[in-house]
Amino acid sequence: MTTADEVLAFEGARLNQGGDETWAWYPLSRGTAWCMAFQSMALSSCGIPTRYAWVSACFDDYRAQGRNSYNVRTALPGDLVAFEWGSTPGGYDHVAMIIGLTESGAWTRNGNVNGSRVKDLWFPFDGGGMAEIARPPYAIAPTPSPSTTKDKTMFHFKNVDGRDEYIALTEGGQVVGCWSGTPKGPIGPWVELRGGISGSNLLAEQAADGRLVVQLAAYGELWGSWQSVPGGGPWCDWFKVNDMRKFFENS
Model confidence at 119, in pLDDT bands (50, 70, 90)? Predict the structure, then answer.
């Protein structure tokens, strides 16, 4: 079964690309708006057959299935988000895929933006145009929870906006976190911060600019990841710490 991580990874491998692959896949005439066709290609290629070129048609279908919500603040990674900017009479203007939420907005993965490219963009909840979300039929993964038998240390931080954040390791070695949506607000469920690796001996700390940083031992080496912006995601791809040291030494 297809997971949201698989679809986001498919799209992430195409960052900064133009529309040629999407136009050929659908197919569409070169130069046709391709934001929805890009999402269709990603979902279909990962195992969820989808074929829409018009955003509103896709959301009409998900709405009929009861797979939509108008509360964008409840979005999960992998959700489609429709934008209403008033430039498409009778329909939505754009679609993207949610990567992750911050306190005041959402990171999204988009086709056909910033010079007709695939880009990750952040939009605010207020004034950004995000109007509706829809959840494709992904595989339902069990909610991760911290280990009770190894690496028992749990890290607690205050994000730059005052929200609490906790980071720990699961029994399977995945790095997970949970946080409050508002300062002193209720804590949400545990979620994996960045998939693709498992390990042990977790270390988490807060950098001078406020971003949270994690490191762990995996595959015989030290690996790391950090928040893309202080207090928010998405977390960057895992990197080998020694490779990053060499990069900075040679730059």
Answer: very high
Burial class (CB in 10 A: 0-12, 13-18, 19+), 209: exposed
Which of 3.40.50, 3.90.1720, 3.10.20, 3.30.1490 would CATH assign to domain 4-134?
Answer: 3.90.1720
pLDDT, one tens digit per residue, over 149-175 is 555 679 999 988 898 999 999 888 889
> Percentage of residues in the chain with pLDDT exceeding 70?
93
Q: What is the mean pLDDT of the chain?
A: 89
First to last CA, the chain: 42
Q: How many CB atoms lie within 10 A of CB 143?
A: 10
- Cβ atoms of 87 and 93 within 8 Å: the answer is yes
Question: Is residue 210 exposed (0-12), middle (13-18) or buried (19+ Cβ within 10 Å)?
Answer: middle
Residue 53 exposed, middle or buried by CB count within 10 Å (0-12, 13-18, 19+): middle
77 with 98: CB under 8 angstroms? yes
Residue 33 pLDDT exceeds 70: yes
Residue 148: the pLDDT is: 60
